[in-house]
Amino acid sequence: MQRAFREAGKGLGKNRNGLADIKVMTIRADASRVFVRRKGVAMQSPVAWVGMDVHKASIVGAVVGEAGDVVDRWEIPNTPVGNERLAGRLAVLGDARCVYEAGPCGYALHRLLAARGIRCEVIAPALIPRKPGDRVKTDRRDAEKLARMHRMGELTSILVPTEEQEALRDLLRCREDARNDLMRGRHRLGKFMLRRGRRYEGKAWSKSHWEWFRSQAFDDGNAQTVFLEYVHIVEQGIDRIARLDKRIVAEASRPAIAPIVGRLRALRGIDTLTALTLVSELVDIQRFGNPRELMAFVGLVPSEHSSGGKQSRGHATKTGNVHARKTLMESAWHYRQPPDRPGLPIRKRRESQSPGVVGIALKAEARLHKKFVDMMARGKRPGVTKVAVARELAGFVWAVARAA
User: Fold this and answer.
1) For the purposes of burial, counting CB atoms within 10 Å of the CB of 400, is it exposed (0-12), middle (13-18) or buried (19 or more)?
2) At 314, phi and psi to the nearest 5?
3) For 186, which of 153, 292, 383, 400 is 20 to 30 Å away at the CA?
4) pLDDT tens-digit series, residues 112-138
């Protein structure tokens, strides 16, 4: 089956060889090749490289042939009907290889095209090569750039999670949002009481602190209303986190996830919430060939600017998955304590694990505690020490996840 597309009107600009503008272009496609006719000369390309700039309202696309010239452009609305039209348009190109940047529009387009048998990759935006001197940015130019770079193999694709994996990740991120909202609510309530000259001297947010809150009252009606609203917000936040935690515990017990969650919980500083966060954010830890790849993925490796005979390393790159990096750095603080007296909860978590997993966990305790103490003794700042310990903890997470 053949189908013809015709574009007329505005010129498409000069190609890389400086040829004249293409004013009229006819594209014919069958099931295997893209045919481009220009000035009476027919050329064929076995692969159609397609770049798409995806936005909330529209999708701008560009098709590049094997020679690197743009052979087609389009713009369609980013709606279910528009996406179906796009899939049909790409299907007639034969061997179409599509790319678009990861962003707020998610993976719905990728899943639609994959279901139609069309090859599509989602690209990491931070790893797209950029020209420092290129100061012109439009949707059309972005689509063409993606298509050309995909043709040259200069783009880095990401692992697209399944809908189930993405839903689990959203659940853990919702819990993180709930915790942040609760913290803000507590700050507002506490600062409101402080402005009114009422200060609690005991442990903050303990049971006695809540009893103190409930014993407070204000003569002014407006102040009393504000106080009750702030208290209500905090109580809602606590209930919200409790509901999410209940769901998270249930998810961690599923047969498909429970084994790796159990192995990760053998490490100090990692319990159900942290283990499930790592599983959902890393998607598949097995895909990392060595610990250094995982360390780089979460942005815990040092940055470097070396040239000639001079080597210069700086702070952590802080690239990649921020949620996994934050979780690892929070867990790293637990290794300040000596490993000679493990608590009852961690001993229970290790009872059901294999000797290999327990051995890795014990090795991590000894090594990371020693590193923490040695770096602090050398005068390193706590933040620097935390990042260094978190980097090595990522290596032990990799080892435990792959242990039998």
Assistant:
1) buried
2) -125, -150
3) 383
4) 999 999 999 999 999 999 988 988 999
- Closest by alpha carbon to 48, among 121, 97, 119? 97
- Cα separation, 190 vs 180, in Å, equals 15
Place of tokens 């959902």: 280
Taking only the tens place, the pLDDT of each residue in 48-107 is: 999 999 999 999 999 998 888 899 999 999 999 999 999 999 999 889 999 999 999 999
Half-sphere exposure of 246 (CA within 13 A, CB side): 6
Range 263-290 average pLDDT: 95
pTM: 0.84
Q: Which two tokens stand for residue 231?
A: 């208290």
The first and second tokens of residue 219, run together, are 């003569």
Compute the chain's Rg from CA coordinates: 28
Tokens of 93: 């190109």
- Strand-pairing partners, residue 98, are 50, 120
> Is 331 in contact with 269 (CB distance < 8 Å)?
yes
Are residues 285 and 398 in contact, defined by beta-carbon separation less than 8 angstroms?
yes
Q: Which of 344, 348, 175, 351 is nearest to 249 (CA)?
A: 175
Torsion angle defined by CA atoms of residues 4, 7, 13 and 15, in that order, rounded to the nearest 10 degrees: 0
| Residue carrying the six token digits 């690209």 | 123
Contact 83, 176 (CB under 8 A): no
**CA–CA gap between residue 345 and residue 330 (Å, rounded):** 18
Query: How far apart are alpha carbons 314 and 248 in whole angstroms?
Result: 37
| Residue reference for tokens 């790893």 | 127
